[in-house]
Amino acid sequence: MAPKKPARVKARQPRGFVDRSAADLYAQDRMLATIRHVYETWGFEPVETPFFEYTDALGKFLPDSDRPNEGVFSLQDDDEEWLSLRYDLTAPLARHVAENFEDLPKPYRSYRAGYVFRNEKPGPGRFRQFMQFDADIVGAPNVSADAEMAMMMADTMEALGIARGQYVIRVNNRKVLDGILDAIGLEGDQGRRLTVLRALDKFDKFGADGVRLLLGAGRLDESGGKGDFTKGAELADDVIARVLRIFDADGLAGVGAAFGGHAGVDAGLEELSQIERFARTAGYEADRIRIDPSVVRGLEYYTGPVFEAELLFDVVNEKGQKVQFGSVGGGGRYDGLVSRFLATPVPATGFSIGVSRLQSALKNLGRLEGGARSGPVVVTVMDRDRMADYQAMATKLRAALNGPGRPPVPVEVFQGNPKQFGKQLQYANRRGAPVVVIQGGDEKAAGKVQVKDLALGKELSADARDNAEWREMRAGQELVDEADLVAAVEAILRRTGAPARRAEG
C-alpha cells in the first residue's frame, strides 16, 4: 500500500491581520519620516519598548474600553509569569519611565512608532494588529505641555499635506465631563456615567436629537432594517437640556452657563481657557485647534485635557454613504499611569496617531507620495557559465548609481531560469525595470554591452509592422563600450525619471 501523501497546509491569513504590499510600505515609511521630523523639531527623542510586557504591568484596562482584563493576547512564560502583547504604546512607556526613573531627564520627551495588538473581534477597518505613532511628555504637570501636544499635532497634519480646513485638533478636559456627571447626580454610578459618555460621543453620528434619545429612554436604530434598541441613561428632560448645552456654538460658554460653580467643571474650564490662550498666542487659531467640551476619550484612562485629531473631508463608507473621515488620532493627560509603579506622583500627557487610518486618509486626499518606486536595473543572463561576470557588472552599477542621502537605485542579476531570454524581459517588465543590461559571448569578446530602455522600447515597438521588423529595429536598445555602461544606464534613468546619481548630461 502506497504511503499516504501528507495533507497540504491551507494558505490562509489570520482574521484581523493583513499582508502589506511594497507600495504600501514605501508610502508608510515616507509618512513616518515626515511625522518623525515634526516630532524631533519639537524636541522629542525616540525610544523603543518590546512587543511583550508582563501582563500586570499593562494594567487592568484598555484605553477607550470598558472591558477590564479583556482584549489582549497573552501567554505564560516558562517561569509561569504571564506575558501579553502590548495593546498600546503608552502603558509600556509608563513601565520604561518607572524602571529608569532616576536616569531619565525630566520632563522626558519621547516618541515611539510600532505595532500594537488587540484581541477583539475584527471587522471592516478594525484590525487586531495595527501601528501607532506616539509622542509623550512625562513629568510635566503644566497645562502648557498639553497645549504643546495639540499644537504639534496640528503641525503634523499640515506637514503631511492636510490643509487647514481639512482637519481640526479638538480639545476637551475630563475634569469638565466628570464634573458634569457629578453635577447631574451620577456621582458613583459608573454604569450610567458610561452610558452618558457614550451618548455624548455619538453626537457626530446621530446629532442632537439622537443624543437626546440616548440620554433619555433610549434610541431605536432602524437602519438596515435591524431595529436595534439602545437603552438610554434615563435622565430627566431638564437634565438632558442642561447636558446638551456642551454642544452650543460656544461650548465653553454653554458649559459655564449650565454647570458653572461646580469645582471640577470650573477647574477643567480654566485649563481649557489656558490651552486656548497658549494656542492663540502661538498663532494656532480655531480653524486648527478648537476647544470642544463634547470630546469624549478614554472612559477609564485620562485625567485632564484630552485631544482628538479629526479630518473634516467626506469619504464614502462601506455602505456607500458619504461621511466625514473622522478621527485619526487622539490622546490626553494620564497622570495616574506611571504612578502605578512608583510612590511618587508622575504627571504625563501624550498623543497617539493611528498610522493605518492616517495612511488611508492621505490616500483619499491624493497626498500619499512615495508609494511607487523605480523598478530595478536588471542584468540579464545569456550564459550561465559567466554568472560571475554578470555579478561583477551589477556590483559596478550598484556602486556607481547609489550614494549617501540619495534615493536607492536597485540593481539585480536575473536569478531565474535563463534559457528563454523573452522570459527575462517579461520579468523585467513585471518588476517595472527602467533598463536591462544584455551581454552575450560576442559582445563580451568585443568589449561591448547592450542597454535597453524598456519604456522607449515599448513605445517604438508599437510602430513595428511585424515580428521581423521588431527584431530588426531592436527597439530602445543600444550597443555601448563596457567602459560607458554606467553613463548609458544613467542616461536612460534620467530620461525615464528614475533616480540617477549624477545630474549632468
From TrEMBL:
Its EC number is 6.1.1.21. This is Histidine--tRNA ligase. Belongs to the class-II aminoacyl-tRNA synthetase family. One of its GO terms (molecular function) is histidine-tRNA ligase activity. InterPro entries: aa-tRNA-synth_II, aa-tRNA-synth_II/BPL/LPL, Anticodon-bd, Anticodon-bd_dom_sf, His-tRNA-ligase, HisRS-like_core, HisRS/HisZ. The keyword Aminoacyl-tRNA synthetase applies. The lineage of its organism: Bacteria, Pseudomonadati, Pseudomonadota, Alphaproteobacteria, Hyphomicrobiales. Coiled coil: none annotated. It is found in: Cytoplasm. GO terms for biological process: histidyl-tRNA aminoacylation.
